[in-house]
Amino acid sequence: MKHISKAAISEMEKIERLNLINSCTGYKSANLIATKSVEGIANVAIFSSITHLGSNPAMIGFIVRPNTVPRDTYKNIKETGFFTVNHITQKIIADAHHTSANYDSDISEFNKTDFEAEYKNDLEIPFVKDSPVQLYCKYLNEYRIKENDTIHIIATIEHLFFDENMQHKDGWLQLDKANVVAINGLDGYCLPKLIDRFQYARPNIETKSFL
Question: Is beta strand 31-36 parallel, antiparallel or unpaired with respect to 42-47?
Fold first, then answer.
């Protein structure tokens, strides 16, 4: 196997280092976070760092990069307290990737892509229409990671919407039924396929498949 030391990584050309380190940790979630400014401008941006933090209460977290440049998503969440998380499917990956472009704060990415803002149940923050899994989230807290000046946002899931044909009787959502994608590195989009699903693992008992 090829070996690269910490010292060699630090000496790499920037783009090569970004691509290597962002891909070596494995597949990541692919989500669109939608927000709305106090001026009423909807924003949508792609994130690959959203993670499950707990189910009771239902909480998620994600990472915001350092605020050395304007971060509309972070600013809007801090000002309004709410945001939506929308899963990305195979057919919308080009538009999803385009939301990473650096538009001015007064320009909505909804107007620069084919995405349509969708409002549900009198909720003030838009969802991305036709996304098969949509979460309406409330900002709880944030923790600054001093080692690289990033911010870990903590939020609760206030509302959850999803296509019913994805759900099994035990509550589990089978994401590949909706062609939900994952991200490999910074710019690689992959289509995961369910291989197997296993029962709860217990000591000295054979692990059995659900399928």
Answer: antiparallel
Q: What is the DSSP string of 78-111?
A: HHHSEEEEEE-BGGGHHHHHHTTS---TTS-GGG
Cβ-defined contacts of 101-110 (< 8 Å, 24+) = 102/69, 105/37, 105/41, 105/70, 105/72, 105/75, 106/39, 106/41, 107/41, 108/41, 108/42, 108/43, 108/44, 109/43, 109/44, 109/45, 110/42, 110/44
Q: What is the pLDDT of residues 1-26, one digit of tens each?
A: 999 999 999 999 999 999 999 999 99
Q: How many CB atoms lie within 10 A of CB 128?
A: 26
91-149: pLDDT as tens digits: 999 999 999 999 999 999 999 999 999 999 999 999 999 999 999 999 999 999 999 99
Q: Which residue has the tokens 């929308």?
A: 86
Can you give the pTM of this predicted structure?
0.94
Give me Rg for the CA atoms of the chain: 19
